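Colleagues,

For the teaching module next term, I've prepared a clean inverse folding example: a structure given as tokens, and then the sequence designed for it. I'd like students to try predicting residues themselves before seeing the answer, so please don't circulate the second half yet.
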């Protein structure tokens, strides 16, 4: 019987057998080795393993039967998608034919022209769409061009955007953007265009961090656009600056943050606070097979605790700005801070992603060590659900804001400006000005997809090396 370890909380644990017998690796033909990796990884770790009949532990009596099954699928991706539950349940599991691309995305490195955008339906249409620029990434091609937050575009290379063509048009390495004017929802081409080219770009998620003084309040403002662990030291430095400037309040802007590392999310929560070091921040819930194994062998590995030794603000209240693009690790921070401090959420309902993934490589332990040199496939399947210290994590419809204030393209504002509607609302809550919120339009327009969610891996919440 083949034995496989559960290493992916990054502990060297003892071996655990698969459900089927006589799973001898030597019996796997070279033509099936990638598919064999896909099935065995999904059988062991997939969160919904027990809901997929072809992933059942007793589905195959031996490797020969598994080989016959694997041979009926044209390629590893087709098999992977067959082994997933319905997309209405699992929207996020992905497979990559080149794990270097996957690793880059998880660390914030992508082929990118620097224009982050959202896409919306044109008024009264279910097929025609348009885009709007959310922000520009520094040191990118877009940063050198005349394109800014709030700009509207209706076409790429002269072809109007639709629900059927936007992925293809926006996937090009170089394309011309055709701009339009926005007038109460009406999109009118204005004859302006420019060309953008994608390059390998590393996005620093710390987009804005400054201190706003309002009376006796020193308000830290942080626009944080991704939980990328390679920038953890810079994040801690930013909070060190807040501490040295005696910040009394924090506005954390997660509007365009679609997720990332669970460890980084735990560190961010620890920096916002600081008074809960060592206490339970969140708990992981895996499939029943993995859960039972971890609970018996290393129950502490299922717990994410507040981290000590970081620059902490010791706040008992935080103001968090959100949109429908606020997802996964961002929602983790919101949900799991609530049992400890008051979270005032301003903006729109979040995405509703309460599940996380891991990277599986084709190796004896599914880690990158001793990875199979014959191919570069890797999987990022959903393997766990994350809940707060009390066991709550049911927000698949999104987390509802304390103060509803969806972004309005007719009154968008400049990020970091104290008059920008969402930041202004947070400041007014902090200083108790009693100022009325901007009037919400009778019809609320929302993005149906954005630059990050077009690539599902950019919205992942994942467990990485602890």
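(Answer key — instructors only)
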């Amino acid at each position: 019987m083949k034995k496989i370890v559960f290493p992916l909380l990054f502990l060297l644990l003892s071996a655990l057998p698969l459900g089927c017998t006589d799973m001898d690796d030597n019996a796997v033909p070279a033509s099936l080795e990638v598919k064999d990796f896909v099935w065995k990884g999904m059988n062991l770790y997939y969160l919904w393993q027990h809901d997929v009949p072809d992933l059942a532990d007793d589905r195959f009596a031996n490797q020969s039967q598994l080989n016959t099954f694997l041979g009926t699928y044209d390629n590893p991706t087709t098999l992977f998608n067959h082994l997933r539950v319905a997309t209405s349940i699992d929207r996020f599991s992905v497979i990559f034919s080149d794990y270097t691309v996957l690793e880059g995305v998880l660390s914030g490195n992508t082929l990118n022209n620097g224009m982050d955008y959202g896409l919306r339906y044109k008024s009264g249409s279910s097929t025609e769409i348009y885009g709007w620029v959310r922000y520009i990434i520094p040191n990118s091609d877009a940063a050198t061009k005349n394109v800014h937050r709030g700009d509207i575009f209706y076409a790429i290379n002269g072809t109007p955007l639709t629900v059927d063509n936007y992925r293809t048009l926006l996937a090009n390495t170089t394309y011309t953007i055709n701009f339009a004017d926005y007038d109460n929802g009406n999109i009118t081409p204005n004859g302006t265009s420019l060309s953008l080219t994608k390059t390998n770009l590393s996005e620093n998620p710390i987009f804005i961090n400054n201190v706003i003084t309002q009376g006796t309040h020193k308000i830290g403002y942080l626009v944080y656009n991704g939980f990328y662990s390679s920038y953890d030291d810079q994040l801690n430095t930013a909070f060190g600056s807040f501490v040295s400037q005696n910040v009394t309040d924090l506005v954390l802007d997660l509007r365009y943050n679609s997720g990332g590392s669970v460890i980084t999310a735990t560190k961010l929560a620890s920096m916002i606070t600081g008074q809960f070091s060592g206490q339970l921040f969140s708990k992981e819930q895996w499939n029943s097979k993995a859960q039972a194994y971890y609970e018996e062998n290393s129950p502490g590995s299922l717990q994410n605790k507040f981290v000590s030794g970081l620059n902490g603000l010791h706040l008992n209240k935080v103001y968090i700005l959100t949109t429908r693009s606020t997802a996964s690790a961002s929602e983790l921070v919101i949900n799991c801070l609530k049992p400890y401090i008051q979270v005032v959420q301003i903006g729109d309902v979040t995405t509703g992603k309460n599940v996380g993934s891991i990277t599986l490589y084709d190796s004896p332990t599914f880690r990158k060590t001793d990875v199979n040199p014959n191919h570069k496939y890797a999987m990022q399947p959903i393997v766990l659900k994350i809940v707060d210290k009390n066991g709550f994590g049911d927000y698949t419809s999104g987390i509802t804001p304390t103060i509803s204030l969806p972004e309005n393209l007719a009154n968008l504002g400049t990020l970091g400006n104290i008059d920008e509607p969402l930041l202004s609302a947070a400041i007014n809550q902090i200083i108790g000005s009693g100022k009325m919120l901007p009037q919400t339009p009778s019809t609320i327009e929302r993005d149906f997809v954005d630059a990050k969610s077009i690539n599902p891996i950019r919205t992942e919440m994942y467990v990485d090396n602890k």
